[in-house]
Amino acid sequence: MAEAKWERAGLVGAAIGVVAAGAAAGMAIERATVSRSVRREARLALDAAGPYGTLRGAPGTTAAEDGTELYYEVEDAAEPPAPAVPQRRGRGWLRRPAKGAAPQVRPVTVVFCHGYCLNQDSWHFQRAALRGAVRAVYWDQRSHGRSERGRDQAAGGPVTIDQLGRDLKAVLDAAVPEGPVVLVGHSMGGMTVMALADQFPDYVRERVAGVAFLSTSAGKLAAVTLGLPAAGARAFRLLAPGLLRVLGRQAELVERARGATADLFTGVVKRYSFGSDDVDPAVQRFAERLIEDTPIDVVAEFYPAFTTHDKAEALAGFDALPGLVLAGEKDLLTPSAHSAEIAEKLPGAELVVIDGAGHLVILERPDLVNRALAALVSHACDAVRAPVPQGLRDLTAAADK
C-alpha cells in the first residue's frame, strides 16, 4: 500500500513539473548520464553559490481590492531630474514649482510585472543593468513571491486577468503616486498590463509614457500547441484543467513528490524556458527555483485565466506611445507570432525577435533585452522631455558597437 502511494506521488510530481512549465504531461525527457546523487550535489552547489535573485530595494506593501497584501520594492535613480521644458497639456508630469521657480520634470519610473510561476526576482539581470539609472518598481503578483496568497482565491474564488490589472493599479497608486511611468510586463505580467489599460484607460492616457511587452500574448492561448503534435496539444488542453484541480487538492502530496522528480522537472524547465543549449547552468537552476517556489495550488488557481484571456482591443490604449514588443524565436509557451500580432496594433512599438531564445528570454539573453529596454526608456524620457540618464545612454550605445 505504501509503495503504491509513493508511486502515485511520483506520477503526481512528474505531472506538476510539466504543468508548472506549461508543458504536456506525456512528453519524454532524456535522462542525464551521471548518477542521481551527483546531479543532486550539483543542484545544491548551484543553490549555494548562485547570486541570482539577491538584489533588493526599499520594501513596501499595499492592499488589493480584496485586502490581499501586495509586496513591492522601489529603487531610486542616482541622477536628479533636470529642469523641464514646457509640455503639451493633459499629462500630469510636471512638479508644481514654488513661486518664481522653474518647473521640474518628475522622473520616469519603470514598473516591472513578472510572469506566471515566477516572482520579481526573475528581473535580476534587468535590475542589475538599470540599477541607479532610473527609478524602478518591482512587485510580486498575488500569491507569488512575497505577496500574500490571494484572499479571494483562499475563499474559493477564481483568478482573473482583470483582477491582476486592478492589483497593478493598486501598486502604481502606492509606489508611483505621481509622474510618468513605463510599464514592462513579461508573460502573465504583459497580460496584467493589458488588463490595466482595459479597465483604466484614463490612467494610461495621463500617466503612461511607454510600454514593453516581453514574451506575452493578447489572447488565443488555448490554441498554442506547446511544441507538441496536434493530438498531444488537444489532449493537453482537454486534460490540463481537471488535472490541475486534482493536483491543487493534493498540494501536500505534490510538494513532497517534487523532490523525487527533480531530474524530470529540470528537463521540462529547460525545454520550455530556454531555446538554446548554452545557458549557464546556474541560470537554469535559478529558473527552476523560481518555479519550484510557486505552490501547486497557486499554479492550479491561475491556469484557467489564461485560456480565456483576450485583451487585443485593450492595446489601443498604448498605440500612441513608445513601445517594445520582444519575444524569443523558440518560445513554445507564448510563440513569437503572438508578439507580432501585438506589434501590429502598436504603431509606435519596435518588434524584436531574438534568434534561438525561449520563453525566459529575460534570463537567457539579458544583454539584448537590457539594451532594448534601455532604448525604450530613453524614448519615453524624450517623449516627456525628461533628461536621459547616462546609464541608459551607456546601455543603448553598447548596442551600436
Quick summary:
With 401 residues, the protein is of the alpha/beta class. The protein has 16 helices and 10 strands. Helix 2 crosses helix 11, helix 3 crosses helix 15 and helix 8 crosses helix 12.
Would you give an account of this structure?
The chain is an alpha/beta fold. It folds into 2 domains: 2-24 and 40-51 and 229-304, no CATH class; 58-88 and 102-222 and 305-398, Rossmann fold. It contains 16 helices and 10 strands. It has helices spanning 2-21, 36-49, 124-130, 151-154, 161-175, 188-199, 201-207, 230-249, 251-260, 262-273, 281-292, 296-307, 336-344, 361-364, 366-383, 390-398, and strands at 58-63, 69-75, 94-95, 104-105, 109-113, 135-139, 181-186, 208-214, 323-328, 349-354. The strands form 2 sheets. Strands 1-2-6-5-7-8-9-10 form an 8-stranded mixed sheet, with helices on both faces. The protein is globular, with a radius of gyration of 21 Å.
